Amino acid sequence: MNLDIEQKQAVEALGKNILVSASAGAGKTGVLVQRLKKRVIQDRVRVSRILAMTFTAAAASEMKKRLAKELHTAFLETTSDEEKAWLSEQLVELEAANITTIDSYCLTIIKKYYSVIGLDPATAKKVLSQGSVNIYKKDAYLNTLAKYIENDPALSYKVISYFSARAEDYDSLYSIINTINTHAQSTIDPDDWYQQAISSYAPISRISDLSQATLENFFSRLSLDLNCLLSYLNQMRFYGDGDEKIKFETLDKGEIAIRNCINAIQDHNYSKYSYSLENLALCKTSPDTKNAEYSASRKALNDKIKDLLKNNYDSKMMIQDHNDLSDITSYIVSLAKDSWNAFISSKQEDAVMDFSDMERYAYDILCANNYTVAHILQDSFDEIMVDEFQDTSDLQNAIIDMISNGHNVFRVGDVKQSIYRFRQAKPSLMRNLMHDPDTIQITLRHNFRSMNSIVEFSNHLFSRIMNVDGCKDSYTELDTVSVGTARQQEEIVPVEFTLIKQEKDADEELSAKQQKAYWIAKKILLMKKEDSALSFKDFCILVRSHADKTVIRSAFDFYNIPYLIDAREGFYQSELCQTILSMIRAVKDPRDSIALVSVLTSHFYDFSDEDLALLKIRHSSIYEGISEEHPEIIAELKELNHIAEDRNIIELLTQISIRHDFYNRLNNNQKANFDYLFDQASNAKVDTIQDFLETMEASVDEKSSEAVSKGKDDDVVTVTTIHQSKGLQYKNVFLWSTSKNDFRDKSSAVMIDDELKLGINHLTMPYRLKRPTIQRLAVEYHSNLEDIEEFIRLLYVAITRAEKRMFIVDTTKKDILKQPVDLSLLSQRGGMTALIYSAMKDDPYFKLTEVDEMDVEKEKEIPKTYVKELPHLTIQPELLSSLYTPSSTEFKELPVLDETSKLVGSKYGTKMHEIMEALPNKLWTMQDLEAYALSTTDKQRILAFSQSDIYQQCLSMEIHKEFPFYVEQNGERITGTMDFLAMNDSNIILIDYKTDNASIPEIKQRYSPQLKTYIKALSIMYPGKEIKAYAYSFHHKSFIQI
Questions:
Q1: Which residues pair with 976 in a beta bridge?
Q2: In terms of Cα–Cα distance, which of 901, 991, 982 is closest to 942?
């Protein structure tokens, strides 16, 4: 590897702790390997005296492989016997080298020194799965809460009802307790954190009694809002320039009033601010309805003033609100602490641990007996390497410092790529260390990944959006990189931003997300057509949310584009795990119809939908049908149940894998998932089928990835989240841009900030009227700022994945306004789109292209395969008596419609019927409807169906959609298709969908004959069952019983 000046310095520097700031594409991994090589070969440091910690096990494995290759090459090239002997020893040591993750290294400490803290040696051998951890946590919480309720039932009821409108709802409080503990346990001293959290709502007599940090953030929040007002005012001046209708003296008066508020804020004088704000509200500006831009800015100004007035409570009320929360805060923090201690105790009793224990136990061991073990380890390593330092937590950093001798830590990271705030990563650790005079500072200045246009685009963009007053991140001259090789030089090929324009009032055939997905699919096909050297594997789509993957999958299916998409968030939600979960449920109870159907249609039994339909037609239920026609299946499920009860879950999984050649018929991805599930089950403490079911069900929300098995030569488009893409690179990248950046934490009942601790709104009970407390406003501001900064860092990670071409894609219904890049713009949370547009609109490395929304059907290419000859009858068909169809009875008189209305109505009706057929048999949410081209109104109409008592009753029955039938009686033939049918042993519910906008009486009159015919057919097919028939009107969101 050819090293540039800074890389060479990073490889060779010694004598002090070293911090290497490595921007994306700077060759960080190569530098780490070269430094390891140099330390071993030139400096004669034994591999066993090096500790290298990476962020993931995959990164550790890759580093170990690359070092092995370097040492092996050096062994082959040297002619010195002494050198060969040394390298041979190091290659042997490499197998057991401490090149690992920090969690794994902590586990090594625990296994060796467990006795120092009196830990059972069996503990380190049994690491719980996330599902088991959830069960332990919930049990500990419920047991602790029961004691709290017994000791103080009045206060307990007050707290539980404060965080949920239902007094019996313990889950809402459980979620809060979990979040508190997650933050507390990531710190060096959790007890101190808990105490500070309680103190955040200690009683006060005046606002100035609040902590200095709280006051600074509270007034900074108000200051930001006021500066937003100035920004809107300046926009009004700009757009109103030359407009005679606008009185600019009103704008001047408004500015004076705003600055009076700002002066009060700077003095931390809340009463003066409150009075000045009321005066500001009296200042009126000139309207001008014909000046759209001016009017939009004026509206934004007035809306912001209204928001400020809404929270403009007098000092006495704010003090009282704060004090009212003192006992509630003390209760929930104490409950959190005691629940955690109970959680630890229950694990210790069972001699088990989880991943969160590894760092805590290791830290406790290092601190024990006056740091005895820490001193031993300090003498054990000549070099400690830390990769991805920007994502280190306080506790992890403390462990690193304790095992260091004070001058042997080599840290590599990039603050701009710190995107794991939800894991308590602390970019501030690296920021602070960058100014430590006792640490050697090295910055890698070249990018070896991307073409020059992308590198310059990144430099220009982030120098503008990271250098914002009021934010902690910066993009300095040292962060500005240049390309490192001649191959990266090129003529300017701007980063392309495609904005798909949507009609403002149109009831779109395609949603905004679908428009983006179809445009990307088309663009990929076009690029491949223009450049035959391109493969599908040369493309990657980066999204922020897993939910967006589903829409992309549909578009790629539409255009026949091969892809690798894991649209589920967790391993336990993978198709394989859901199949195994159904298998376990069916083994436990074969009468569980949903589980049984899932197993029957899996690779285990390979029943087709037609097979199941025939079973259902011939029998009252699938279970009865299987019992009578395939008794061997029921017998096998019972046999598997006995295996689980008499032996164990591992044997059950083994039998599932070998029977019916189940495992061998899985694809590579599914095999990888099965293997991982088997390992998890082996390590989990589960003795019965019920234990295993509870563990798997408790793990459904786990955020671990599927065990993906994808070969490097698979020709597929990769669709992944930005978080998943970190550390990777792709030739051509499409960034799925966003027009908003929601602050999700804001809706939390209790907001938690590691600096300010808790932020809780005041509720006036029992009416649940909400007012923000000063502490809450301060925490919101500080957390919001941190979230915004991480959002920009996430954008940095996305932009820097591309090697050759970068495309940014979004949709909009309105023109995007170019605004000054300041804290006001960031706080508006306009997503990536507004940020990139405002910063780069006129930049030579940025190209904006606006396109009209797509008509997908017109764009799809027709396959070049045709039927040569149509099938035809070879015999004379039998002449049947006239056929009676229920739909022929729908109308005696048709309303007058023009041809266009008929066509639109028909298409709309067909679309709604198809969607209702495709939706799963469960209660639906907006997310379930995201993949369909529906207006908000139509989504609400479908959700109204889902939320009805009638549909919810149907969910407990056997459901059929688009149910075809044919019956004969007394020479009369009736045939047709019923939209929706639910049945059990004694009842049938029939629902027919109606999409016209007739009145309810008209619908009943028009469709009664049709539904009565359906009822007649059902009574023939299922004699003795009670039948209820309804027409569901989408227009009225109403069921009409016939």
A1: 965
A2: 991
